[in-house]
Amino acid sequence: MKRKRLFLAITIAIAVISGTISYPGALNKVIDFVNKTGLGIPHFWNIPFKLGLDLQGGTHLIYEADLSGIDKENYQSAMDGLRDIIERRINYFGITEPLVQTQNEGEKHRLVVELAGIKDPAEAIKMIGQTPFLEFKEQRTEEEAKPIWDKIKEIEGKTEEEIKKIDNWQLALEDPNFKSTDLTGKYLKKSELGFDQTTGDPIILLQFNDEGGRFFEEITKRNVGKILAIYIDGLPISTPMVQEEISGGQARITGKFSIEEAKSLVKNLNAGALPVPIALISQQLVGPALGMVSLQQSLFAGIIGFLTVIIFMILYYRVPGVLASLALLIYIGINLAVYKLIPVTLTLAGLGGFILSIGMAVDANVLIFARLKEELKQGKSFSVALEEGFRRSWSAILDGNVTILIVAFILFQLGTSFIRGFALTLIIGTIISMFSAIFITKTFLKLFARTRLENVKWIWG
User: Fold this and answer.
1) In 10 A of CB 143, how many CB atoms?
2) Rounded-to-integer distance, Cα 440 and Cα 357, Å
3) Lower CB density within 10 Å: C or N end of the chain?
4) 126 pLDDT above the threshold of 80
């Protein structure tokens, strides 16, 4: 009995928390009513859903990259590096949830950029259109850093007009920690992933041209024991320590890198080193009106389908159908809460994946209830029939859901943006549907075990 109550308490807690995250408006209205007494209770955390370009509108940009200046075997790494750089640039300027992907069609290499919610993308276009700039910076001395820090303190709290009246105010815009050197990306021939022969740890290998090698030797000579920072577009991507003077135009960056971190750094270094200009060839403003109509129609269709399923489940399975309907409501709340917390950028295709996952959740309940009816017809007690029904239906539920997950993972890895959105919501929904069927539905059914209602045969279908 204690275990039954514990599981019920966990289920209720999950339902309340997920429901409140999904729709905090109801709780906040209660809080507003209570606050009339002067308590001052803060509102519950209201996280908005992230809507994709097709639902809230925005800007769709297509760029074509000029790869004529690099070797063919470096095409993909250059495009991947450019994609990462552009995505970081967009995020740096406060444009969240951008979609940046590469498209290769024959000899044409393109970048597709989607900026949901951006109606005036002029500044983003200007920012994206620049070639990535890689530079190496050395640490400032205390004497060099002090006037910059003093100027930063001097302008603190002042308006723009007041700042411009201060002598040499531009000094506050400089980096007080690092200063530029003559060594930039144009002197870096290539960067590649390597492994330390002693420890096996991943390292980054750098190779400069002759002129870059001379610059690098001079810089490392005067910075032994200091940090030599690597910047792309004004942002640091690595801050290695100079161990000794390095000559010969070759160097390596060591550290506690994971393989993925090392690969990402190599990609960014190569993107900053390669002169890959990109040109805007298409710009399209997507209005939210069509997206909102589509969203409303999709939600209406989903609600009608959900209500139809609930009616069928109740009529055919009776009490188990009612319990399954409650479990499905909790399942929807959990899904929506997860979409907000990750967050998942919702598109029409993503909503399609979510609605399909509801069907998977219903399917799991149908398998369980069908097995339960068979066990009860054999004259077994409700408790035994319940355990046997779940045990015998589990293999079919697992097989069906794992098959869906495998296909969804393939779609997510190989698909384009909308396909990936569909796959992601389907993956999340399928995983949660297994939890809903096995834990939540089972918890509800166990409430009737060893009660008078378990002997009323007609209510169990």
Assistant:
1) 7
2) 16
3) N
4) no
Question: Are 280 and 61 a contacting pair, CB within 8 Å?
Answer: yes
Assigned fold of 2-41+287-460: Multidrug efflux transporter AcrB transmembrane fold (1.20.1640)
Tell me the per-residue pLDDT of 268-319, one tens digit each, with 9 for 90 and over.
887 776 667 788 898 887 776 656 777 788 788 888 888 888 898 888 888 8
Q: Which CATH architecture has domain 58-140+177-282?
A: 2-Layer Sandwich (3.30)
Structure tokens at 178: 């690092």
**For residue range 140-170, what is the model confidence (pLDDT) as tens digits?**
998 999 999 988 888 888 888 888 888 888 8
CB of 426 closer than 8 Å to CB of 304: no
Scanning the structure block, which residue is given the tokens 């990609």? 267
Cα distances (Å, whole numbers) of residue 144 to 75, 141, 166, 317: 41, 5, 20, 79
SS3 of residue 126 by DSSP:
helix
Q: How far apart are CA 458 and CA 442, in angstroms?
A: 19
CA 49 to chain centre: 13
CA distance 417 to 114: 10
Query: Is it the case that residue 95 has pLDDT exceeding 70?
Result: no
CA atoms 324, 21, 426, 306: torsion sign: positive
Rounded mean pLDDT of 404-427?
86
| Short-list 132, 124, 154, 221, CA closest to 181 | 221
DSSP letter (8 states) at residue 24:
T
Q: What is the pLDDT of residues 316-374, one digit of tens each?
A: 888 888 988 999 999 999 999 999 998 888 888 888 899 888 888 888 888 888 888 88
**What tokens were used for 111?**
């970048």
Domain residue extents for the chain: 2-41+287-460, 58-140+177-282
Q: At what angle do helices 348-377 and 319-341 cross, to 10 degrees?
A: 150
Identify whether the C-beta of residue 197 lies closer than 8 Å to the C-beta of residue 254.
no
Q: Give pairs for 402-410: CB < 8 Å, separation 24+.
A: 404/360, 404/430, 405/430, 405/431, 408/353
* DSSP structure string for 70-108: S-GGGHHHHHHHHHHHHHHHHHHTT--S-EEEEEEETTE
373 residue type, one letter: K
Helix (H, G, I), strand (E, B), or coil: what is residue 438? helix
Residue 270 makes CB contacts below 8 A (sequence gap 6+) with: 74, 77, 78, 81, 190, 191
